[in-house]
Amino acid sequence: MNQRTPRRLLGQGLEVSALGLGCMGMSDFYGDSDHQQNISVLDHAIDIGIDFLDTADMYGVGRNEQLIAEVLKTRRDAVVLATKFGNVRAPDGAFLGVNGRPEYVQSACDASLKRLGIETIDLYYQHRVDPETPIEETVGAMQRLVEQGKVRYLGLSEAGADTIRRAVKVAPIAALQTEYSLWTRDIEDEILPLCRELGIGVVPYSPLGRGFLTGSIQRPDDLAPNDWRRNNPRFQSGNFDANWALVDAVRVIAEARAITPAQLALAWLLHQGEDIAPIPGTRSVKRLDENAASASVVLDAETQEKLRAAIEAIAIQGTRYPEAGMKSVNR
């Protein structure tokens, strides 16, 4: 297949596909998956020009990096590989906290490189900000990885405005990964303008609202018993029903454009700026192609205004993480 996905520039000259592929769900959080199907999705993404693959050491407690390593063995030069450190989990998956200490930065990077089977990580994020370690120390250690040739570009994830300002005084930051979608727009007030002021690209994760915005999840019971979303406040029964108003609004506007709700949600994000590269996740080649097509959707000003008016008129119910998770975002 010769379809090619458009390219975009994040900060510091880092070039990626306009849409990336979030790989977390292939190994963790969203129920069981099929290994060979995951490999097929990864290969197909690269085939159609989606070369921006996103993982983290915590996804599947290292298994997600090992999965991607299977593709990197033969296609390393065709991939812009992003991974993350900082969220520490025990071998059984238990969450042990956030670690941004300099010595841990080094050891975590070395462990990721070994699992991935590569010599250099293209984009290395701090997954969550460690409240016990000054960001200057963490980013200083990350910059040393660049000097060692182990990392090309640096990123932060779910960092607040003050943290970002302090970080860029230590080392160049190419990207901020953060949740951003039609139902999560809190970065628009301060963080997004700041990133643009500092020349930092934005990589939205969960751009489809963890699947909610596609309309494919009709009720919470549609989720697998071991699906993490069952514990997400926005997917709780009362909130789920109230939030369905957004799905209806998106569906109506999408149908008028003869596109899917997922394509509308992604196209809307892509229209928020050329410095934005969302990373929707999927375990389906069909859904991957559907998502990829959103990069060629042009939304006129009237459609964008209708969509903005619709989402601003709907009060989303529930926080985007449970209480403990909310303490680590925009920090």
How is this structure best summarized?
The protein has 331 residues and is an alpha/beta fold. The chain has one domain: TIM Barrel (Alpha-Beta Barrel), CATH 3.20.20.100.
Can you put this structure into words, describing what you see?
- The protein is an alpha/beta fold.
- It has a 7-stranded parallel β-sheet with strand order 3-4-5-8-9-10-11.
- Helix 7 (237-257) packs across helix 8.
- The chain has a single domain (7-326), classed as Alpha-Beta Barrel (TIM Barrel).
- The longest helix is centred in the C-terminal third of the chain and has 21 residues, at 237-257.
- It contains 11 helices and 11 strands.
Record the SSE blueprint.
Layout: E1 7-9, E2 15-17, E3 21-22, H1 35-47, E4 52-54, H2 63-75, E5 80-85, E6 87-89, E7 95-98, H3 102-116, E8 121-126, H4 135-147, E9 151-157, H5 161-168, E10 175-179, H6 191-198, E11 201-205, H7 237-257, H8 261-270, H9 285-293, H10 301-312, H11 323-326
Parallel strand pairs: 3-4, 4-5, 5-8, 8-9, 9-10, 10-11
Antiparallel strand pairs: 1-2, 6-7
Helix pairs in contact: 1-2, 3-4, 5-6, 7-8, 7-10
Q: Main attributes?
A:
11 strands, alpha/beta, 331 residues, globular, seven-stranded parallel beta sheet, 11 helices, TIM Barrel, two-stranded antiparallel ribbon, 14% strand
Tell me the distance between the termini.
42 Å
Tell me the total number of β-strands: 11
Shape: globular
Low-confidence stretches: none
Domain count, please report it. 1
Summed up, the helix count is 11
Q: Strands of the largest sheet, in order across it? A: 3-4-5-8-9-10-11
Order of helices and strands: EEEHEHEEEHEHEHEHEHHHHH
CATH topology: TIM Barrel
CATH architecture term: Alpha-Beta Barrel
Mean pLDDT: 96
What is the CATH C-level name?
Alpha Beta
